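JOB MANIFEST
job_type = single_chain_structure
chain_count = 1
residues = 100
[input]
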Amino acid sequence: MTIDEYAAWAATIAKVDEHPSNERLSYLGLGLAGEAGEVADHIKKLLRDDWLDKAGLVDELGDVIYYWACLCAATGQQPSELLEASAKKIKRRLSEAASR
C-alpha cells in the first residue's frame, strides 16, 4: 500500500469528504496533536527510565500517521506530494545552512 492509498483508505474510516466541517478538521488536528503527545511521552520515559518501549512508540507513530493522512485527505493534498515538498524544503534549508 502506498502512502496515497493509505490516506484514501484512512479518509473513508474517518469519514472525511471533499469539504470537511470545522468540527471534523478540529477533531483530526486534535487527534494528531494527542498522538504526537503520546510519542513525546515515550521519549520522556526513555529519558526518565533509560528504557524505550519500542513497540509502544511504533504503535503511537502509526496513530500519528493515521491522523496526518486524514488531514492530508481533508485538505485535498496527496501525501506523496507533501513528502516531496517537505524534502525539498529541508534540502534547501540544509544548503542555506551550509553556505553560511
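[summary]
DSSP finds four helices and no strands in the chain.
The radius of gyration is 16 Å.
exit_status = 0
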